[in-house]
Amino acid sequence: xxxxxxxxxxxxxxxxxxxxxxxxxxxxxxxxxxxxxxxxxxxxxxxxxxxxxxxxxxxxxxxxxxxxxxxxxxxxxxxxxxxxxxxxxxxxxxxxxxxxxxxxxxxxxxxxxxxxxxxxxxxxxxxxxxxxxxxxxxxxxxxxxxxxxxxxxxxxxxxxxxxxxxxxxxxxxxxxxxxxxxxxxxxxxxxxxxxxxxxxxxxxxxxxxxxxxxxxxxxxxxxxxxxxxxxxxxxxxxxxxxxxxxxxxxxxxxxxxxxxxxxxxxxxxxxxxxxxxxxxxxxxxxxxxxxxxxxxxxxxxxxxxxxxxxxxxxxxxxxxxxxxxxxxxxxxxxxxxx
Length: 338
Ligand code: NAP
Ligand code: G4F
Known about the structure:
By secondary structure, this protein is an alpha/beta fold. Helix 1 crosses helix 7 (224-236), helix 4 packs parallel to helix 5 and helix 6 packs across helix 10. 38% of the residues lie in helices and 18% in strands. The site of NADP nicotinamide-adenine-dinucleotide phosphate (NAP) has 27 residues, from helix 1 and strand 5. NADP nicotinamide-adenine-dinucleotide phosphate binds next to helix 1 and strand 5.
């Protein structure tokens, strides 16, 4: 019998890659999808017609809908990827973020407990949990948490309620503590994609410059396709445990900008400081990047650098795509698109 998986957040970056991976492993894949007034299935358009792929309307905040779906689908595995996932936006909509990103996880776990506690459960936890203690880098499963945003605080609740349902009810519930992972399917409101889309539009003459916030933040950026493989491996392990998935490398936003412009043959020279800093084309002197305080956050996570050694050792998981190749892949895709 093929395994059956239910994915919340199926229309998102990770949901789309994970669906493709599970279909390639002969799973029957069911995705939870919200009703939109416009089409939101762009990322899963290639698999919509797959005979083993099914979509169900619902919402992570609707407990009766979640219970009914689990009863109907009887999945072997649930991957909870649904979230208000933008950290900056979580400062604008903190209560909504808590409801969806935090309490939504409880609703899904409670449905699992009531309908079938044998279902394996994956929770999309995050390096944002580590937040504000840069001196503890690199960050591993043992690093203390200190979230710095409403998103991080909501994910902290989701992390612990997952651990609690594992310990209280013996549910195979695991946290994947994933560091930033990107791809050509990354939302355009995240910094990497904002940069690669911006460059593609500048090259096409459709945009003058890219306006960014904190250029000094450091992130451990990997490729989403590698990370969904890790999610699957976490649920195939003999015991329910929590794992960090990361590259073990960190880069500033500034370095991402420089590397991405290099892909289109432009060298960036930085002039000025703070909000007056600008990135100029070294040949023409044209301003291609500037700083807009609108994109600063009320609180910032300065440094994320993950230690993936537990996952490498126990799950035999390792990222395959390097930072440079990730940037190249995203730029190439956006140059074609725009
Ligand atoms: P994403 O592209 O923003 O996708 C989020 C998904 O959640 C979308 O399918 C969205 O549906 C869905 N969603 C939002 N609110 C919902 C609700 N109320 N009910 C049902 N579905 C809802 O995020 P991602 O990058 O794929 O990340 C997947 C998960 O991993 C998220 O939980 C994120 O917080 C977490 N995570 C991501 C990273 C990363 O670097 N990407 C790192 C660590 C953890 P719509 O299409 O309808 O909006
Ligand atoms: O791309 P970002 O918005 O990602 P962030 O905040 O690190 O969160 C992402 O990764 C988390 C894992 O660590 C996930 F849990 C979360 O769901 C999401 O996927 O911002 C990265 C950095 C930040 O320091 C931000 O302040 O880039 C900085 N930044 C500078 N200018 C900007 C911008 N971020 C955005 N989104 N837009 C800017 O213009």
